[in-house]
Amino acid sequence: MTLSEEAAERLADIVELQPTKNKALQDRWGMESGSDVHQYLESELKEYYYRDEDSLIRATAEARAIVTGEEPEEFEVHMTDFERLVFAVAPGPEEESASVVNVLHRLREAHGDDLETDDGDEPGAKDVRRALQALKRKGVVELIYRTVPTFRLAVERDAVLLDED
Asked: Are residues 55 and 86 both part of a single domain?
């Protein structure tokens, strides 16, 4: 997706201000309301941002690469505790991708009875799918369609720095 000059400048604002809120972007961009910001983000920058569990706006790894003009050797990514567990067991970029159920089995093998979601519940396939999709939006997991959708890391595990925000 090719960005207009305005969209590229606004993407740079997101990278600079992250984690941020609609209000900060509203002020920076001179918009009338947070709804205008949300509408702009969804129509122009949907592929380049995500909201964390606190609804703060964050740039994807791809967005940061576009703004800096280079592919970073390391990515700083904000993850929930459960997303970190899923990231730790997801197949690496050179491995065969795995289904949601396979990743759930890997989680159970690695963590046994100590495994729980961010809400404190025992995780199921729906929770793992949600975490994998969140990691995909953040640019560190890729989706590969086979007989069923499968996932694997899009970057080397050690290239990801966990944002402690």
From this structure: no
| 164 pLDDT tier (thresholds 50, 70, 90) | low
Give the span between the Cα atoms of 81 and 57, in whole angstroms.
18
User: What is the maximal distance between C-alpha atoms in the chain?
Assistant: 51
DSSP 19-54: SB-HHHHHHHHT-S-HHHHHHHHHHHSGGGEEE-TT
User: How many CA atoms are closer than 13 Å to the CA of 61, on its beta-carbon side?
Assistant: 26
In the chain, DSSP assigns E strands to 49-51, 57-59, 75-77, 98-99, 141-145, 149-153, 160-162
Same domain, 44 and 85: no
pLDDT at 1 over 80: no
Alpha carbon distance 13, 150 (integer Å): 33
| Distance between CA atoms of residues 41 and 123, nearest Å | 31
Count of structural domains, the chain: 2
Report if pTM > 0.85: no
Indicate whether 91 and 146 sit together in one domain.
Answer: yes
pLDDT score at 72: 66
Pairing relationship of beta strands 57-59 and 75-77 according to DSSP bridges = unpaired
- Residue 105's pLDDT band, with cuts at 50, 70 and 90, is very high
